[in-house]
Amino acid sequence: MTAADQTSAWYGAEGDDGAMGRKGNGTLRSGRITAVDLGALSAGAALLGCGGGGRVDNMLSVLLALGSGFAVDLLPPDADASGFVAAIGLIGSTTVMEEKMPSGRELPATVTAIEQWTGLRIGAVMPAQVGGLTSLATASLASQLGLRLVDADLEGRATPRLDQLTIFGPDTAPVTAAAVTSSGLTVLVSDATPSDLETVWRDAIAHSGGWAAFAIGPLSMTQVRENSIHGSVSRAVTVGRALAAAAGSDVGALAASLGGTVVSRGRVIDIERYEDRVNFVANSIVALDADTGAVTRLEASSEYVLVLVDGEPKVSAPTVIAVLDSRMLKPIATVDVRIGADIVVLALPGANWWRADPERLRRTGPRAYGIDSDVLPEIGAAPGAHP
Amino acid sequence: MTARLAQLLTLPSLPAARLVAGAADAQIVDVRGDVGTVDEVSWRIARSAPGDGAPGRGKDTALMLVLLTPVARFDYRFDVLLRRCAAAGVTALAVAEGQARLGPGTDALARRLNVALVVAEDAWEFSVRLTDVLGAGDVPAARAALDVAAVGLEAGLGLEETFDELDRTVGYPLVFLDSAARPLRGSVSLDEDRRRDLTGLAGRRPQACLPVTGGELVAVPVSTGIGPRTWLGVVLPAQVPSERAVVTAALRVASVVVGHRLTLTRLVEERDARYRTSMLDELRAAGPSPSPSLVQRTIVAGWRLDEWHIGVRLVAREAADFVALRGDVGSAFRTEGLEAEVVEQLDGWVLWISSPAEPGPALIRKIAAQIRRAQVALRPTIETNVGVGSVQSGAAGLIRTLGEAGDAARVAAGRPEAGHFVHVDRLGLAQLLLAWTQTDTFQPAARQLLGPLASGSGDLLKTLAAYLDAESSLAETSAILGVHRNTVADRIARIERILGVDLTDPETRLALHLATRTFRIEPGRPSR
Question: How close, in Å, is residue A250 to chain B by CA atoms?
């Protein structure tokens, strides 16, 4: 199927959004995220962001200000529904975003641009990555436009680059996508590969505002079902609730409740940050456990990618690696780690989707983050099991 | 061989390297350099099997691994390498000094895994030299010997200059010990027992190793063929057998180099001594008007003949090397503030102190006191009889005061109560006369005069001396000699008969009395 054929197929589906299953069977009992869930979603997204994805606090404040006006229905990715989905994300510097706040128009404008260009209606949105800011931003967009939120994402954690999203496999057809910069510039790219998007958008961002919101789509529900990480949004809420419940108590219990493990603990004694050609920034963080003498090293780009204890590799992407403040059990972003901080390293199982195919692992393993290490087996997997 | 890391790092034959993390007492048995990125080296270690010669042949390898390729970054790759090193029995890991920052994280892990981390300025050189040190081959010793030989050929002929060059080449400061194992250069604390050990070894062993404070003294004898045997040594702080072998090889060549310089120095000193002695002899022979050419030579030698002089004579009471000790004499006087010309003699030295103006009595007393202190200062080196002449001016005056000093020195020989020190200005009449009895002119005359009495038992000579000392009293003389009064009277009569003299004549009595002094001062000389 050529790109042109596909476009016409999408076109033929116009107006089907009303048929999208509004009574999904998401993992949340209510199938609905309201203002009371925002704190949990935010904390869970921060943890699943593996230290990246942008700080969630500001966006959370904005959403909480909406008060009871906030409500989103979750759409399970495997729901029997027609219609089109747009994957929503943010690109550029999340730090700049904290200084240059979203106006509220950027996110809707991305969806509008896609609809205008393709003539198709977007019925639901999903976060491009569950980790960090994007989940909240997508939820806010869904609430704002009255769209449903697909309970899935394209990463399962957070990622610095677009080509690492699940939909961009080797035989993925080119996509249409629109970005709206913080300066209000709309850049629509059609028939694009992920590297096209990177090239065009990063140039645009560099000249216009420092960050942009983007939407990739329209994606069919079939595409979403087959090439996404199911249940990500509800998982974020679950994780967030577990964090809230565990606050001030034992991290071991937290790990157990989430099916994860405590990899190590310690006080940060060394941080080295340097420019990296592949992923813009790289960090090497070392923590020393005063009780056991164990030395933990965390290798990170904008996300934690690899953990070694006493020189032995323990956990790697795509497993979820979170660094928590050891007292508050609050996730610490890679940019916020400081010498002297007491941390605990928590690993949660990553998305199985990645481990189903070596090609997928190539896109999400440590090497995709510029760290020359093999993908390590999923936590809890039998020793010696191949990833 | 096995060596402690801390000891290895102090060896001067290794390029600069420092321990940055881990244990300084790590044992090192072997060293291996490896080229490649951290990952490649790490991979090789992980895959090395026992016995295949690759780094990491088991837990007891005690290997130092040197990364010859600079480490780009001390990140997780290096952590993995450290872990694999620890698992493979690598006790120390050396990396090249580079741009990459070696942070506390790497440091902490190295400590944790007990792998010592060393940063070497030049990793290749470090690896090669360390292989030499740890290996059993003769290459490092040969290299050290060659290096020292090069110093021998290229350094100047001065002893100090040669020592400085050798210090740099051997890598340790050299200690130069005299025949009694006292340090002449450099410092080493040897107690009496150790000194005896060393001097006892002389000639029997080509080298000696003695434990001393701060390490071990490795010493080899220096033999010049002339003069006493000396020792050349190095204090090795680290007890690394191969390093001892290297230093010993270097020292043995160095001992030849130093011996050569010592012989040369000695030759020059001997030549200068002969020159000075003969110039002084010529001056003595020339009398009041030395020839212009002689005067010119004395000026070149720095002798200020036309000034005022105080002559000093040092006569050694024991055999000694007067050429070698000249420097000690000069410095003993300099220490007392006296700038003296020193000229070697067969039995000691003559010295004189010159000044442009005539020194007053107070200054003369002060100078005499200084000379006496110099004599005392020299005592540990050599025991001397010292005579000091009166103040005289000009070339002839110099010869005169030196003559007086010589006479005074002879007097001093018999005056232990005066510390074997006699100053002509203080000599009483009796001593002056006594001194005269020791002059070269009087002694033959005295021997001739008393010669007839010397045959036989010598009783007549003793009786004559005692009789004259006792103011010609027969009773007193018999008491002194312990013989009967009539025996004394009989001997006196025989003396008068043999010598053909009349002892009642005052002139005769005086001459004979003085002549007896010649024999009394030199009792050991056979009287004829």
Answer: 27
Which residues lie below 8 Å from residue B452, measured CB to CB, with a gap of 6+? B498, B499
Contact B101 A372 (CB under 8 A): no
Taking one residue from A and the other from B, the number of pairs with CB-CB distance under 8 angstroms is 64
Residues of B in contact with A312 (CB under 8 A): 80, 83
| B82 contacts A311? CB cut-off 8 A | yes
Nearest to A142, CA basis, from A83, A209, A71: A71
Report the distance separating Cα B111 and Cα B117, nearest Å: 9
**Nearest chain A alpha carbon to B86:** A311
HSE of B230 in the Cβ direction (CA atoms, 13 Å)?
A: 26
Q: Residue B236 belongs to what H/E stretch?
A: strand B230-236
Mutate to test the interface with B, among A267, A270, A316, A371 (most CBs of B within 10 A): A270
> Contact, B237 vs B253, CB < 8 A?
no
Interface confidence, given as ipTM, is 0.82
Question: Residue A285 forms beta bridges with which residues?
Answer: A271, A298
Phi, psi of A334 (to 5 degrees): -55, -35
Q: How many whole angstroms separate alpha carbon B491 and alpha carbon B418?
A: 35
**B194 reaches A (C-beta below 8 A):** no
Whether A294 and chain B come into contact, CB under 8 Å, resolves to yes
Give the minimum alpha-carbon distance from A138 to chain B in angstroms, rounded to a whole number. Answer: 35
Name the residue of chain A whose CA is nearest to B80's CA.
A311
Residues of B in contact with A274 (CB under 8 A): 73
Mutate to test the interface with B, among A269, A297, A374 (most CBs of B within 10 A): A297
Query: Rounded CA gap, B417 and B409, in Å?
Result: 14
pLDDT tens digits for range B52-91: 444 444 445 688 888 888 888 888 889 999 998 888 888 8
CA end-to-end span of chain B: 75
Residues A83, A93: Cα–Cα separation, whole Å: 32
Task: Give the separation between CA A3 and CA B432, rounded to whole angstroms.
Answer: 136
387 residues of chain A, pLDDT tens digit each: 333 333 333 322 333 333 343 333 333 444 888 888 889 999 999 999 999 888 888 788 877 777 777 889 999 998 877 889 999 999 988 778 888 888 888 899 999 999 999 999 999 999 999 999 999 999 999 998 999 999 999 999 988 888 889 998 887 778 899 999 988 899 999 998 888 898 899 888 888 888 999 999 899 998 899 899 999 999 999 999 999 888 777 889 899 999 999 999 999 999 988 776 655 678 899 999 999 999 999 999 889 999 999 999 999 989 999 999 998 889 999 989 999 999 999 999 999 899 998 889 988 888 888 788 889 998 876 544 444
| B75 with A297: Cβ contact below 8 A | yes
- In sign, the C-alpha dihedral spanning A262, A267, A270, A273 is positive
CB interface of B with A, residues 206-235, below 8 Å: none
Supply the Cα-derived Rg of chain B in whole angstroms: 37
- Cα dihedral B168→B173→B174→B178 (10° resolution): 150
Q: Which of B71, B75, B112 to mutate to test the interface with A (most CBs of A within 10 A)?
A: B75
> For residues A109 and A159, is the Cβ–Cβ distance under 8 A?
no
* Partner A contacted by B84 (CB < 8 A): yes
